[in-house]
Amino acid sequence: MKVLYRLKNEGYEAYLVGGGVRDLLLGREPKDFDITTNAEPEQIRAIFRNCRLIGRRFRLAHIVFGRDVVEVATFRGQGTDAVEGEIEADESGRLLRDNVYGSLEEDAWRRDFTVNSLYYNIRDFSVVDYTGGLADLEAGVLRIIGDPRQRYREDPVRMLRAVRFAAKIGFRLEKETEAAVFELGHLLQDIPAARLFDEVLKLLMGGCAIQTFELLRHYNLFQHLFPQTEQALAIEEGGFPLVMLVQALGNTDERIAEGKPVTPAFLFAALLWEPVRLAWEQEVAADESLPQALALTNAMREVVSKQVQSTALPRRFSTPMQEIWMMQPRLARRAGKAAYRLLEHPRFRAAYDFMLLRIHAGEEEQELGEWWTEFQIADSDRRKEMASVFGTVRGRRRRRRRGPRTAAK
Ligand code: ATP
Ligand code: MG
Fold first, then answer.
1. Atom number in ligand 1 closest to CA 22
2. Is residue 114 lining ligand 1, measured as CB closer than 6 Å?
3. What CATH class has 192-409?
């Protein structure tokens, strides 16, 4: 409201738009607030001290209030009389730059979905609707504005956004909006892996990861985000990798609902575990003399280097993700001093939680989880007792030679 009134008092037009209006009309709490105005970025900056200008593809103003950011964008036009350099597209029609300003109505037509193109006007408390968004909101329909094929070509991420909103607000995709997704999903391959990563976080850490995951697979989009995982799911035996994934996504949703933190490192560890496990098995099969940890490292490297070609996770997440994986065989050995060292590891808790997922999916014995659960809270005498059982060198050798566990149980 502060931002809206400040813009209005300075003589500009300003509207709340996007998820803020959509979610309020649905009686939901908006995740964030987007504002659109006829003021240009420099003019916005001139009237807000707490303003940062960001973006290349879309130049935007961020008005910062502590930890909250209100995004303020200038009305965008269709760019028919675009000055050269302000709108840029590649051969497939994808927009690379889109900084042509326009009127409110033009702004409405270049948004993604009708329900995202509703404008709340503080001057008379009305909702401005050019695209039929109110009727679609009433009917529970997610409809892309304009020609679906063209709009997905301009920005293939809109297909992911369709899935995200459908899962989040429980809307169904309108027929043409839906049909074009089945045709054009492959265009996601041209999207920079870093942008896809941001989008994957919104998809899977938005509080309804399970529905989102199921819809992504239904629309054949998941394969473009996690090709190796999709492949592994296709050859699954006994439902095991799917069980683990759904459990991980369900835990994520639960934690978000409870206001607990979730980390992409853990989520990606779960999403990529089956490909890693399969590659690990192959490494071991190819060279039995290879130490287990080395085989796992090779497998991890192979999977990660393929993954970053589609959805690239930054190093600050991929490092802890790999630590979680590396700790799995070590947790299974639990021998003597090593067990104590693991307990001190900064990633112990995540690795332990991850192991519980694998146990839940039937990949390790229940008893292993119980052992670690007790070991964490046991007093020093009991710990000594527990660790000594697994402390013999012969025991360790035998386990090591066994290699990675297989899914077949
Ligand atoms: P939420 O914030 O709850 O995830 P939202 O609808 O507000 O949902 P944002 O990503 O915040 O989504 O974008 C704000 C608005 O900007 C959208 O509602 C839509 O009108 C417009 N928009 C965002 N991304 C695109 C896009 N790729 N193509 C066209 N319009 C877009
Ligand atoms: Mg928003």
1. 6
2. no
3. mainly alpha
